């Protein structure tokens, strides 16, 4: 399917003037060759007055948004499109209070939930692993607190960074993960999940990376001064968290903020904000629904209090 997306806000508003326009667009993304029944695989159907596809073979009705981020949403899909445009066109990311204002939502909770659903959609299912020369290091995020510094720092959360070294081309793609510790078990699992076997993994001399060669990687040990790429990403990440959340984070939802940072960083050279919108819509149609109970946690009130101050 040819990449097809609005280039400007004006194009977005002119093209998606109704839910029907939005659903037609989503339908082409989900079934580029035409509707296929998820139950029996039949390709013969008709469009009902309720906006669903009725399979002629098994009589199952399927909504375009069923099983996606938009699953069972009571708000207009047109409003979701405005939300995705807002999120992808903000240089440093969007917060719930800002989204509430832009969309005219009556509830802060709705804006907060939508943002977290969209953050979960920023990770493409089945995305390619990093390859080539990959630098791996850890950083700690969180507010300033007294106590131990470095690995095992108290009151902070451990984030592991993997970044492709493209040589003269600069920094390639990145991957981030929130890990419980810097043990070999955690670090090896991260490398195996994020990096393709056969890659050269550049690390410092931390013992947690010992034995990674047995997993099919070549390990190159570098000095702290040589780990420039990972240190740069760590600096940008901490600056982003500091600017957006005043430097304080809670562990409950940190993974999804890392996903947003990764999504934005890996598309930093895109000349079109519309393409970021397109990618987010694509991902939103590919990931599973995120019911409200999965979004709740002890960080909710904390994040609200921080964002209300912005």
Key terms for this structure?
310 residues, alpha/beta, five-stranded mixed β-sheet, three-stranded antiparallel β-sheet, 11 helices, globular, disordered C terminus
Describe the structure.
It is built from eleven helices and eight strands. The radius of gyration is 21 Å and the shape is globular. The relative contact order is 0.14. It is of the alpha/beta class and 310 residues long. The strands form two sheets. It has a five-stranded mixed sheet with strand order 6-5-4-7-8, sandwiched between helices. Strands 1-2-3 form a three-stranded antiparallel sheet, with no helix packed on it. A hairpin with a 5-residue loop joins strand 5 (157-165) and strand 6 (171-179). Helix 3 packs across helix 9 (273-284).
- pLDDT averaged residue by residue: 88
Number of distinct helices: 11
Low-pLDDT stretches are 297-310
Strand order of the largest sheet: 6-5-4-7-8
Structural class label? alpha/beta
- Share of residues in helices: 25-40%
Distance between the termini: 41 Å
Fraction in beta strands: 5-15%
How many DSSP E strands? 8
Shape: globular
As a whole number of angstroms, the C-alpha radius of gyration is 21 Å
N-to-C SSE series?
HHEEEHHHEEEHEEHHHHH
Major sheet, described briefly? 5 strands, mixed
């Amino acid at each position: 399917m040819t990449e097809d997306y609005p280039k400007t806000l004006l194009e977005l508003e002119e093209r998606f003037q109704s839910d029907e326009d939005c659903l037609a667009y989503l339908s082409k993304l989900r079934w580029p060759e035409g509707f296929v029944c998820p139950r029996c695989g039949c390709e013969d159907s008709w469009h009902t007055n309720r906006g669903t596809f009725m399979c002629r073979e098994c009589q199952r009705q399927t909504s375009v948004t069923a099983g996606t981020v938009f699953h069972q949403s009571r708000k207009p899909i047109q409003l979701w499109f405005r939300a995705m445009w807002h999120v992808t066109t903000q240089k440093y990311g969007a917060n719930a209070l800002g989204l509430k204002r832009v969309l005219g939502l009556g509830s802060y909770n709705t804006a907060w939930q939508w943002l977290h659903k969209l953050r979960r959609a920023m990770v493409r299912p089945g995305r390619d692993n990093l390859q080539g020369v990959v630098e791996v290091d850890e950083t700690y995020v969180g507010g300033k607190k007294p106590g131990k510094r470095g690995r095992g720092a108290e009151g902070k959360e451990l984030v592991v960074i993997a970044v492709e070294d493209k040589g003269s081309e600069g920094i390639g793609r990145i991957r981030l993960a929130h890990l419980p510790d810097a043990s070999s078990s955690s670090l090896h699992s991260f490398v195996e999940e994020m990096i393709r076997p056969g890659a050269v993994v550049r690390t410092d001399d931390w013992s947690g990376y010992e034995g990674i060669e047995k997993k099919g990687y070549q390990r190159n040990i570098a000095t702290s001064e040589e780990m420039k790429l990972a240190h740069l990403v760590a600096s940008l990440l901490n600056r982003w968290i500091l600017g957006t959340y005043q430097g304080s984070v809670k562990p409950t939802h940190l993974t999804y903020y890392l996903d947003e940072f990764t999504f934005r960083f890996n598309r930093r050279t895109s000349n079109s904000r519309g393409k970021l919108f397109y990618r987010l819509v694509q991902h939103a149609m590919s990931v599973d629904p995120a019911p409200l109970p999965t979004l709740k946690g002890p960080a909710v009130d904390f994040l609200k209090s921080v964002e209300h101050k912005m």
